[in-house]
Structure prediction request, 448 residues.
Amino acid sequence: MTSAGPSDAPDDTGLLAPGWAGSPAASATADTAYLQALLDAEAALTRAQAALELAPAGAAAAVTEAARAGHFDVRSLARRARGGGNPVIPLVADLTKAVGEEYGPCVHRGATSQDIMDTATMLVAVRTLDPVLADLGRTERALARLAAAHRDSVLPGRTLTQHAVPTTFGLKAAGWRSLVLDARDRITAVRDSLPAQLGGAAGTAAAFTAYGARDPRALTAAFARELGLRAPLLPWHTLRTPIADLAGCLAFTAGALGKVAADVLVLGRTEIAEVAEGSGGGSSAMPHKANPVRSTLIAAAARRAPLLAATLYGAQAAEDERPAGAWHAEWEALRDLLRLVGGAARDAAELAEGLRVDTGAMREHLALTHGLIVSERLSAELAPVLGRARARELLTQLAGRICAEGRSLRELLAERPELSDLDLDELTDPARYTGSAGVLTDRALERR
Prediction:
């Protein structure tokens, strides 16, 4: 059996990217998908011009018919893109030839490469964000179920890696869901604002006027309408707000999902085991392992996303009316970011829907500090009886004895005659000291 050579290898397989391989984002951002978006932009431009009687009606039909990705050699386009620095230049040549002699001159009329490339990028973004939003919807619904089911399931709250005070798993899951909803809202707002691009060579729309457009704004509006994008107030060749907005919402989403993954990775450790992924991954060397693969892949995406977003933010400082390098630096970074977040959203949905919660382990862990997890409460309750300073001194002393003797705080407090009137069972029960966790969970779940 022989191995495939470089020219035979398939594109965009995601061999080194299990986080997004096989996800809706993988297909929505593939080379062929990007090619189709470029073609969609070209066809929409001709249709918009035909609608305003700036091109023959037959041209609109001919370009639309020819603008199918399967008619073009994406690898040839990629190689030839080196000649002009972007794939639009060879694509326009190929599309013009495919349309034919009669209507070929109507292809790309008045536009510049960046018009088509930016517009296609917006289309790819929209087509990727739609399934991301669907997966975020699955995630928040699963987390809502977990929060409701575990509204009163008590576990140790942890700060700076140590037990702090009791909390509930319901509140933790409600917090995760709140982040997911924040991500949903940000992505939705950005998706709905993404604009078409149409400014011509230097953003003046001069060529469209030369071809007969009396009001280029009408052409831009018709172009955007054909594609389901927003009509921009100005050409944004070097006004990169749409790209910055995408960078921000995508990086935030990766971080929000990364928070969920980080918590699951900690709570799922063998020695903690308060939660577990529904179906862990195996190990090539250790048969007993059930690795938290979904959380691991989300965590990886959360670590990469900020650096990709930084590249996109850095590209905002673009000189002149069209930049050399800044615009080009966006393409791969944005596609990688869309893929990472698309894969992370898919994994988050699977993680949330399959997450297993062990309330027994949570209860056991509440007792690890032999009652000290409620020391904050006791400080407040003992202050009126002993005085604030004496109460703190006593609890500090008893904490030392607990560590040395292995006895419980309840037991040691019972030896103090001055505390005989207190209900020590109630005061030292971690389940009785969760504050407003239940109310906060209910409030969080009211958000839709």
